[in-house]
Design a protein that fits this description.
This protein has about 425 residues and is of the alpha/beta class. The protein has twelve helices and 18 strands. Helix 5 (about 165-175) runs parallel beside helix 6 (about 195-210) and helix 11 (about 325-345) packs across helix 12 (about 350-355). The longest helix is centred in the N-terminal third of the chain and has 20 residues, at about 1-20.
C-alpha cells in the first residue's frame, strides 16, 4: 500500500514539475486509435442555446469523419473524439477550463467556444501553451489584432456582417443609373464591441463608395426604444437603414418601424433568427435584409457532406431542426482540423499549426483560407431577404437564389 502511494505521489510530483517548467510533448493527445480534441462550451447560462448548436455542429462533423474512416496519419487511420466542459457562459470560467483541458487533460487540439467574449478569454490560454485552436463562433475582429499565431476562425469577422448591405445599395443605385455617392445611409448600432465592429465595417464601405452617412446613432446596451433614431429616419429619408442591436435591436427595428409607419427603401439587420422575427411579426418582417454567415441554398460543396443543402438535410434528420449558421460553422471548424492533420501527416502541434495556416479548401460552409492573423478571408457574409415569410439569399448576387425586392413596399401599400 505504501509502495503504491509512493508511486502515485511520484507520478503526481512529476506531472506538477512539468506544469511548473512548461515542458510538454509536442504531439497531440492520442488514445489508442483516437485523437482527442477539447472544447469549453456553454451548456448553461445565457449562451446555452447557441452552445447546444455549437456542440451539435462539432458532433455531426465527428460522426461523419469517423464514418468515413477517420483521419489518416503516418499510414494509419484515427477516429476523433471531443472532450467537453461547461463554461457556464462565463469568460473567466472558459479560460479556466481551457487551461484544465491543456494542462490536466493533455489536450493539444482545441475547438472554440461560443461567442466572441468566450473566444477572447480562451485565446490567450491556447496561445500561451502554443496549442492550435480553430473556432467558428468568435467573430469580433479584436480577436485578430493581438498577433496570435495559434487562433484560426472559419467564420467572417463581425466587421463584415453588414458590409454587403452597403454594396447591395450601391449595386441597386447603379442599376437604376444613380451614382452610389447619392445613396444616404443611416446607422442605429448598439454600443457594444460586437455591434461597433459591424458599424466600423459599414462605415468603411460607405466611405469607399462615397456615400453620405446621415445618421450614426450609438444605442445603449439596454436597448428598449429606438424612437429618437427612427424620428430622424422619417425626416432624413435614408436609402439604407442598418441596425445592429442583437435580438432586441432586430425586434425593435421591425416593431417600431411598423408601428410608426416609417418607410425606408432598404432595411438591413442582424440576429433575425435569434429574434424569431418571422414567427413574431409575420408579414411585418417581410422585405427585411438579414445578415448570415451561411445558408443552406448556397452552392458550396465538400467531400464530407456534399452540398450546403445536403448538410442541412443531414443535420435536420439527426437533430430535428434546420441548422443555424452557428452549427454549420462549428462543423466546418472540425473539418478544417481533420484536413490539416491529414496534410501535416503528423501529430506534432507545430506542423499541424502550419498546415492549418496553409489551408485553402472548399467546404459545404464556404471557402476557407486564413490570412496572417488567422481570419478567414475567402468566405463572404450573405444577405437573406425575408420574402413571404421565408429567407431568400439575395446577396452577394453571385450566390443569390432569389431576386431582391426593392424598394421595400410602403406601409400604406401593404
Amino acid at each position: 500500500m505504501l509502495k503504491k502511494f509512493m508511486n502515485f505521489t511520484c507520478v503526481g510530483l512529476a506531472a506538477a514539475a512539468l506544469v511548473l517548467v512548461g515542458v510538454w510533448p509536442a504531439s497531440a493527445k492520442v488514445v489508442g486509435d483516437t485523437i482527442i480534441f477539447g472544447a469549453a462550451l456553454s451548456f448553461s447560462g445565457k449562451y446555452s442555446t447557441n452552445g447546444k448548436h455549437t456542440k451539435n455542429g462539432y458532433e455531426l462533423a465527428k460522426q461523419r469523419i469517423n464514418s468515413m474512416g477517420g483521419v489518416k496519419v503516418g499510414g494509419k487511420t484515427y477516429k476523433i473524439d471531443i472532450k467537453y466542459y461547461d463554461d457556464e457562459s462565463t469568460p473567466a470560467r472558459g479560460a479556466q477550463l481551457a487551461e484544465r483541458l491543456i494542462v490536466q487533460d493533455g489536450i493539444k487540439y482545441m475547438l472554440g467556444p461560443y461567442s466572441s467574449g468566450l473566444t477572447k478569454a480562451i485565446a490567450p490560454v491556447t496561445e500561451k501553451y502554443e496549442i492550435p485552436m480553430i473556432e467558428g463562433n468568435g467573430a469580433s475582429r479584436s480577436i485578430f489584432n493581438k498577433g496570435y499565431q495559434y487562433v484560426f476562425a472559419v467564420l467572417s469577422t463581425s466587421d463584415f456582417y453588414l458590409r454587403e448591405a452597403v454594396n447591395l445599395a450601391a449595386e441597386v443605385a447603379q442599376l437604376s443609373k444613380k451614382d452610389p455617392k447619392r445613396v444616404k445611409v443611416a446607422l442605429a448600432i448598439e454600443n457594444d464591441p460586437f455591434s461597433q465592429d459591424i458599424r466600423a465595417g459599414v462605415l468603411e464601405d460607405a466611405k469607399r463608395w462615397g456615400m453620405k452617412v446621415v445618421i450614426d446613432d450609438k444605442l445603449p446596451p439596454e436597448l428598449n426604444d429606438m424612437s429618437a433614431t427612427l424620428t430622424k429616419v422619417k425626416v432624413l429619408r435614408p436609402d439604407l437603414l442598418v441596425v445592429s442591436g442583437h435580438s432586441k435591436g432586430a425586434t425593435l427595428a421591425i416593431k417600431q418601424l411598423s408601428q410608426k409607419k416609417i418607410n425606408v427603401p432598404m432595411l438591413a439587420i442582424t440576429h433575425c433568427e435569434a429574434a424569431k422575427v418571422i414567427k413574431n411579426f409575420g408579414p411585418l418582417a417581410d422585405y427585411t435584409l438579414c445578415a448570415a454567415q451561411w445558408a443552406p441554398p448556397l452552392t458550396y460543396k465538400d467531400k464530407w457532406f456534399g452540398s450546403a443543402a445536403q448538410y442541412a438535410k443531414t443535420f435536420e434528420k439527426k437533430y430535428g431542426y434546420v441548422p443555424p449558421y452557428q452549427a454549420a460553422e462549428s462543423t466546418a471548424a472540425v473539418l478544417v482540423y481533420a484536413d490539416a492533420i491529414a496534410r501535416a501527416n503528423s501529430f506534432d502541434t507545430e506542423k499541424v499549426r502550419d498546415a492549418i495556416a496553409a489551408t485553402s479548401i472548399e467546404t459545404f460552409y464556404g471557402n476557407v483560407k486564413f490570412d496572417a492573423t488567422g481570419k478567414n478571408i475567402a468566405k463572404p457574409m450573405v444577405l437573406r431577404q425575408i420574402q413571404n415569410g421565408e429567407y431568400k439569399v439575395v446577396a452577394p448576387t453571385r450566390w443569390a437564389t432569389s431576386k431582391l425586392i426593392h424598394p421595400r413596399p410602403k406601409w400604406s401599400k401593404r
